[in-house]
Fold this sequence. Notes:
Distance between the termini: 15 Å
Largest sheet: 5 strands, parallel
Strand content: 5-15%
Amino acid sequence: MNTLELQKQANEIRKGIIAAVHSAKSGHPGGSLSAADIFTYLYFEEMNIDPKNPKMEDRDRFVLSKGHVAPGLYAALAHRGYFPVEDLTTLRHVGSYLQGHPDMKHIPGVDMSSGSLGQGLSAAVGMALAGKMDEKDYRVYALCGDGEIQEGQIWEAAMFAGYRKLDNLVVIVDLNGLQIDGAISEICDPEPLDKKFEAFRFHTITIDGNDFEQIAKAFEEARATKGMPTAIIAKTVKGKGVSFMENAVNWHGVAPNDEQFEIAMQELEKAGEALCQK
């Protein structure tokens, strides 16, 4: 896909996020929207996957370490063809397979269940190590939150990955600057992130995580990096794409009401129309 096509697809994924969270009357729109461009690039450009064969042995693996932004992952999986887009509005409903956090036993395309923050990177590191031991070519991607990386287990996993030179592993940090209680800088500031990952023997790349050209270059650079894992520090806008949600901490884990839903969808419709005119 070219940049314009990726932008269009990301806009559709953002619509899916808003529709899912509104229907559930709960969920996490802010972080899902900030990571929507990363999800889009991974599933429509970067990863070697096959929606018709979700358990393909040599597929690339993805772990959503910040599992509460499941609406973003689900929207990407649905639009990529893993399950019907219409099912997004069953999010968190009784009997739905689309739970509040990803479930690898019931959702096609989910490689690792995730819930408690800080644990997903350890699972991704294990997958990457297994790939090396089995002499497989698949790559492993893990998406972490900037609030989540305050958890110590993240750095234990990073230390192991760097020491074992897992160059088939890419960690993406969604650096939107906000967590549930406020700005990360006022709670437990993780900066400087690049130097921290470098100290754990990672190759680091800092980008605008809502810019597809920068995203593409970063993943290309990560693929070319040998002998060490890569950390992509993606600076993003929380709530990206919906004006009243952007950079607003109160939209971390709140669903829009009917009126807010209509406004958000109208904004995304207009954004989509503008992209179609380019």
